[in-house]
Write a sequence for this structure.
């Protein structure tokens, strides 16, 4: 049985950007299969009594995060531009990703959208940006966007978010191995994959 890691990511999450751009390469080297699990942080933050991102609630933390993300992107050779506004409205993006099969299409769309959001600073709530990400991923935009509005997709995204909460996910990116170990943050990606490879 192949080792797997569940990659819980949020399109509004800053550190999900570098994680999404490098996880497949790291996992492939280790012989680990990645399950792409888009979810929403909003309900999790609301349950904690937060009305927005902790990076906005604590300005000093936010300033440090943006500079750190800039350094991280530069080190990885990724483009970087801070999107405005922040945090972005990620609901439609998460529904589109949920609607796509996890056979490479979901990952390709997610990477394309992160590049537009944090690489070019574009708004992921803009239908044109969403369409561009789909087309970049080789996916016809109109049917994918239409499918994302269906009740089944809405329920599936809600279920993934509730599953994340039940597994004590409190931020993104988070990685959960098949034996239930939870790793949080882009800087724990390699450790999560290594754990999955040896304990999956």
């Amino acid at each position: 049985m192949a080792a797997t890691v569940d990659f819980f990511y949020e399109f509004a999450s800053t550190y999900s950007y570098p994680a999404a751009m490098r996880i497949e390469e790291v996992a492939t080297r280790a012989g680990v299969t990645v399950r792409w699990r888009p979810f929403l942080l909003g309900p999790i933050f609301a349950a904690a009594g937060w009305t927005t991102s902790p990076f906005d609630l604590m300005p000093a933390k936010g300033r440090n995060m943006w500079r750190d993300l800039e350094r991280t992107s530069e080190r990885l050779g990724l483009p970087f531009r801070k999107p405005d506004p922040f945090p972005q409205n990620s609901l439609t993006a998460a529904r589109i990703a949920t609607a796509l099969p996890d056979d490479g299409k979901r990952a390709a769309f997610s990477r394309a959208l992160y590049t537009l959001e944090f690489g070019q600073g574009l708004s992921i709530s803009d239908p044109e940006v969403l369409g561009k990400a789909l087309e970049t991923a080789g996916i016809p935009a109109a049917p994918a966007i239409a499918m994302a509005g269906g009740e089944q997709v809405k329920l599936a995204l809600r279920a993934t978010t509730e599953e994340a909460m039940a597994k004590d996910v409190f931020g993104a990116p988070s990685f959960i191995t098949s034996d239930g170990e939870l790793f949080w943050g882009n800087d724990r990606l390699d450790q999560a994959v290594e754990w999955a490879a040896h304990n999956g």
